[in-house]
Amino acid sequence: MSDVWLLARYQIEEALAKKLFYIVVLMGLVLVGGVFFANTFELGHQGRVVRDASLSVIGVFSLALTLLLTLQAIPREIENRTIYPILARPLSRFQYLLGKELGIALVVGASLSLFYGLLLLLLFLKEGSFPVPLLGNALCNWLECVVISSFSFLLSVLVSPPLNFCFTIVAYFLGHFPVVYVNYILGRIPPVSGFVVETAKFALPQLEYLDIKTTLLYGDPISPLYFVEITLYALLYSGVLLYLAVLFFERKDL
Amino acid sequence: MNAVQADQLGKTYGKTGRALEEVSFSVEKGEIFGFIGGNGAGKTTAIKILVGLVNPSHGSALIFEHPAGTREAKEKIGYLPEVSNYPDWIPSGRLLDFYASLSHSSPPGKEWISSLFSLVGLSGKEKIPLRQFSKGMMQRFGLAQSLVGDAPLLLLDEPTSGLDPQAQREMKDLLLSLREKGKTLFFSSHQLSHVEEICDRIGILKDGRLVACASVTSLLDQEGPFEITASPGTEALAGIAPVAPQARVAVMDGKVLVPQEQLIPALEFLRAKGVHIQGVEKKRPSLEDVFLNMVRKGPGANEKGDRP
What we know:
The complex is a heterodimer. Helices cover 80% and strands 0% of the residues of chain A. By secondary structure, chain A is mainly alpha-helical. In chain A, α2 runs antiparallel to α3. Chain A is globular and about 55 Å long. Chain B has helices at 43-51, 71-74, 92-103, 110-119, 135-147, 165-180, 192-198, 216-222, 263-272, 287-297; strands at residues 2-13, 17-28, 32-37, 58-63, 66-67, 77-80, 153-157, 184-188, 201-206, 209-215, 226-230, 248-250, 255-258, 277-282.
């Protein structure tokens, strides 16, 4: 485990050495603050609108950060051959991939903490209390980033970064496609096509389950058990993708 | 126990791209083994298989009796890649510390890193990011990172590449000093004079096949040409080509240099022409002569060699 942590720390330091990383984080913070103030001044006390827009901004920027850090993480190391002195050490390719994923998950987690920290602070200053349920959304955001990062990691050992970007974005949108619509489609197509849709539904990340924003905005209660379930789902799904990535990566000639 | 044992190693890319074909050799503990061959001969592929970066299509390789690529095998190797590229966002000393941590066996601390930098001629450069290093400095850093972990076997892919003549000489001395410390060295190089000077044994690769694998002395002895001396200005020497096509003739000096296998036909030809032969002497070839001769001969694994 110490090797995985070393690699994660290396990944974190590499992310922190990127100017683009700071630009994206800064832009995210500016937009979260900007949305908050713009809505306050123009629309008055429309807390729900403020929250909705701010959470959307955070969602977009956390996705952007995840893609920024994940898409090139392995291909660049292979292309630049900086991977050689690492993999020549007594560690497995599984440890290498896990360390990279862990590092990116922690960097994205820290960035999300900044975004949500700013949003909660602004809401506290405005409303005088911390909207604690938003922390549930923070967890969902982070889990979504972990899943997307695992998906992109798997693709990064199989396809080029541009293709990886396209496939990951498609998976992101399909993953957010409401389950009720999918079930509706399944009821109206031939069984063969239905099998394809069912398989895709099973293989693609079910990000819809991690999207609790609307429920939160309308103040509907969410059971703590639900958070346990989605956390287990995200970790299990990411674990399976990591396992597949390792299978392919082990066979890859560097 | 052999430091390296390769049996029937082969690597095919796609359906037809053969990078290595049935390559077998062994490297004894404590020896310096040089791997030479033209560009694309398969040297780097073979080294990458030993490191575990490339999976062999067939055959197997053992590092100190552990299958290549396993954790146990990697604990025994230090590796210098052919192209020295390292992350440029991190100070060189910290990067070396990171590699040392991954290697487990290196003693931690700044003093040890400083001593390693000093060993490769980079004293005081620990805090400089690698982006500010010249190509030669990068190569020296590459050697330093391969020494991290104090591994008993060093796999060095073109260690003198990118170095100026003085640095090449220093690198050669450093490699010899590492052997004195008990390390086994396996390296590829195009600098045949250095290979000849420091290697105990060499393997010659051509088009993915090992065409020779033997001690340097044995190779040079076997491959030595013979110099036939006749009277200066003997015109008959010029007509020797049909019986000894590879002969090098100096009519004015009365000397003919012929490969071993063409000596008898050459002598018979000259006697038939009535040439007075003053002497026949075996010349010691350079490794370059041997290499070029082997490569011209074409494939034929282990044609020459005391052991693979």
